[in-house]
Amino acid sequence: MFNVLSSIKSLYHVHPDSGDYAIDLFSKHLRAQIEATGADLIPFEKELDNIRVFTDLENIRREKDLNIIFNIEYSDFSIPALSLQPFIENAIKYGRTSEKEDGYISISSCCEDGEILLEIADNGAGFDPESIPQSSYGIRNSVERFRLLKGVTPQIISSPGNGTVIKIRFYEASLKKPDENYNS
Predict the structure, then answer these.
(1) What does each C-alpha distance from 170 to 90, 91, 139 come to in angstroms?
(2) Which DSSP string corresponds to 122-147?
(3) Which residues pair with 169 in a beta bridge?
(4) pLDDT digit of tens for each residue in the chain (184 aa)?
(5) How far is 71 from 6, CA to CA, in rounded Å?
(6) Angle of helix 2-14 versus helix 44-60 axis, rounded to 10
């Protein structure tokens, strides 16, 4: 949050319109964070909107924009609120995809025979999934929320030097309606 605010302050010194745009993005990001506290599940499209806002905020602070690829074939389902963002954050922070000439993070979804497959992949640094520290709450919380709210455990496939793939599979029949109290 402090990095974003510092970036916004710098933008206002150079280009006030860009500062206004950044403030709008930051407001949307904060609103999503607050709204997520009152909702267990949100529409997948809303989660994608939150990811777009988050990555746009990240791009404000970077010399080279992140290469985010959306390959969305199916979106008529709900997932735990803000559950994909920690995977994106880790791909940015630890995968270091923006340091590679051809670095990317992709988000895809499809549905076959009632089974939904979500996949987040990057061609970054990779890591040993067994080495995630106990103090690393982002990924652990996302995995646990999928387990509790969707009955599935995301599969993390990664190794040093080979990027990372997160696969989340669940059947459409197990979907719940989004929380009616959720404000779009």
Answers:
(1) 23, 23, 18
(2) E-S----GGG--TT-HHHHHHHHHHH
(3) 117
(4) 656 676 777 777 776 777 777 777 777 777 777 676 677 888 999 999 999 988 888 887 777 788 899 999 999 999 998 899 889 988 888 888 777 888 899 999 999 988 999 999 999 888 888 777 777 788 888 889 899 888 899 999 998 989 999 999 998 754 444 444 444 4
(5) 33
(6) 60
Residues 6+ apart with CB under 8 A from 151: 170, 174
Here the tokens at position 120 are: 């987040």
8 A C-beta contact, residue 97 and residue 66: yes
What is the arrangement of strands in the sheet containing 115-122, beginning at the earlier edge strand? 68-72, 105-112, 115-122, 164-171, 155-158
C-beta neighbour count of 136 within 10 angstroms? 13
